[in-house]
Amino acid sequence: MTQSSQRFLPLDVFRGMTVCFMIIVNTGGTGGTYWPLDHAPWHGWTPTDLVFPSFLFAVGNAMSFSMRKYEQLGNAAVLGKIFKRTFLIFLLGYLMYWFPFVQHTDAGLAFKPFSHTRILGVLQRIALCYCIASLLIHYLPKKGVWTVSALFLFGYWAILWFCGTPGDQYGIHGNAGLTLDKLIMGDNHLYHGEGFAFDPEGILSTFPAVVNVVAGYYTGLFVQQQGRTQQGLLRMALAGIGLIILAYAWNTVFPINKKLWTSSYVLLTVGIDLILLSLLIQLIDMAGFTKGTGFFTVFGKNPLFLYLLSEVLAILFYFFRVGDQSLYQWINDQLFQPLSPGKFGSLLFSLAFMLLCWTVGLILDKRKIYVRV
């Protein structure tokens, strides 16, 4: 658990902003939430829909600093590092959904059966995307990586169109990704947040998500080589604008959709990330404006740990009860809703929860503890 020998402040800030916002949107209160803090119901997007792909983009950025060491290692060592990290992150994600391993029933606490535990999820997608992107980048030349990435985007489009339910290929019930997930994992191992079995981090949609990591990786390399110049930043921003235009052009036939992780959604989110990162580099590296960045670097230096902490705390808040209410609902209803009824009270709870996680991160940062998986 040591700090990386090479830190890149704009990347730490970018990653920290992503984790900060991720915690806020994942812990909405009981009084409703403002629309920017909700996912789009289906097609389209909101600011919340930018959080997860931005984190994958940041994973790729960080890989551009770390994977150079792989060139000096043997094949077995490289595969060992990649598969070990993949397994650990995936396992943490799975255990998080199983935690606390018991559930409330009318007869008291009962063991949570494996047969009804969600297999895939956010950390699992991070693990799989990291694994696939790392293998592609290490074993293929740059053109080969981009060729495979294009195949992922266009192949995913083709599979959804030709293998989905005719007339409902891009619907929540008719998409081919859901069919594959049910076939391989079964309904009981899928996410049920929509009220029925549908996993937004399913098997098939993982492949276009890999492209977010790949794009982050090559953006990181570009920044190291020429991204800290005005010309380099302009190229990044123009590339971002170009991808957004392409995304909206593709949107006319393949809708932007986070829950399906459509290919047009990949182009949109990478384009926005390129613009945002170029702005951060301009402000922090070029203009020297670093005031306030320390808040976000607390999250940026321990991103996976603080995200996992936020999820475990939320699970515990829902698990422990005060009377017939969960602790989560009791805190909201007794403290934050009386303070400000409705959506603003919910936002205050989300901010307080985020600051609790930030405080833990600050303590770790002060002690120079950086948890790396």
TrEMBL record:
Which organism's genome codes for this protein? Chitinophaga varians
Q: Respond yes or no to whether keyword Cytoplasm is given for this record.
A: no
User: Which parts pass through the membrane?
Assistant: 12-30, 50-70, 82-99, 119-137, 144-162, 202-220, 232-250, 262-284, 304-323, 343-364
| Top-rank taxon, per record | Bacteria
Is Transferase found in the keyword set? no
Q: By what name is this protein known?
A: DUF5009 domain-containing protein
Keywords of the record: Membrane, Transmembrane, Transmembrane helix
